[in-house]
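[PROTEIN RECORD]
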Amino acid sequence: MMNFVESKTMEFKQSFTTNIYKTISAFSNLEGGTVLLGVRDDGEIVGLEEIKKIKLNIENTINDVFNPRPIIEFKNLILNDKEVLEIKVEKGKFPPYFYKNVSYMRTDTSTVPMDMKTLAKYMLTSENVSFDELDIKNTALNFDYLEKGLKEALGLEKINDSVLITLGLKKDGLFNRAAMLLSDDNSISNAYIDIAKFKISTDQFVDRIKFEKNSLLKYYDDLLELFNKYYPKLSIVSVPKRIEKEQIPYGAFKEAILNAIIHRDYLIDRGIQISMYDYMIEINSPGGLPEGISKEVFLSGGTSIPRNKVLASVFFRLGIIDQFGTGIKRIINNYHHTDEKPSFVINDNQIKIILPVIGYEYHKLNTEEAIVTYLKAHPYSKRTEIESRINVEKTTLLRRLNELIDKGLIHKTGASLNTTYYIWIGDLLGCN
């Protein structure tokens, strides 16, 4: 007896129904997939009759009511002495794929109408247009802050239509969303940055600031000023002279906030969140990795197409970013002279960049607080790494780690020498 299991890319249908077209739309929009007609939901093979008639019906419907036309391939299978129709659906090159004017997607083993954010993303991709290139209706925008930046970087005295067109902020008499984001009148509701300053935990609140309704360039400058306020260089007595020591590399913070501002997904309805602690800074940027960027490319800082092309171009012209990379490699390199390293935690809806404070004295905290604090700044750490930094004997540390696991405050993965402990569940990208 042969049985199968449904998945995100495998769908069973006991008999032919028109719901199959929703699944074909979903498979075409995402990774592709296979539909088996003649198999029950539980995987039992029951067989299918009138296969030739069903294939003709599906082909005619696809030609008549799909836009664009998905690519499918039929195959007659004999499974457990019963005839089954296999329909292989290719991943489409021109998503979104609509069935009767509705586009579908897969969530686990279910097929559902595509949400507006996902639909917008696919429509922009199909037109090779980024969010910040879309036109807006607003015809009166002020650019005092951008003008100031252009004067300092390029010596331009005044912004006019010619400059705006050259920067890619205006076309055919219309501003685009990049222009709105860089204007002093920025009214895009999710284009804000929420900053909270804590001491050790979120219970020890120090300050709360929200940047909104202004130019992204001003946000960038204000964040650097805030960084210098809370993480000033420390003056260390050293023979024969005093030296200044960075708590967090300035260059790493600069690249991290630029990555968040320029490469975030503005289709997601929330802003950038920055949490500043005595021992680390955590930067949460809406949106996962941009389309076509692998983890390896992300970490290497290799050449990639930015998610927001116009924003990236303007920041490049102002000399703020390097056009040929995301800056991630420079974040990592800024820590190379230290015993610390940044971390990158990825999921579909956000990128979290964690910048630990160099030489933070975890051993001055009580053992439980030291473990939790260290793992927040260093997710997925081995026991030996924790032991050396918080200065706790091995047996005591293992006991405390197990107690924290029992309380659900931390988790562990792997076995033996490969066991690592963590707070956040996510796809951690290593920095070695």
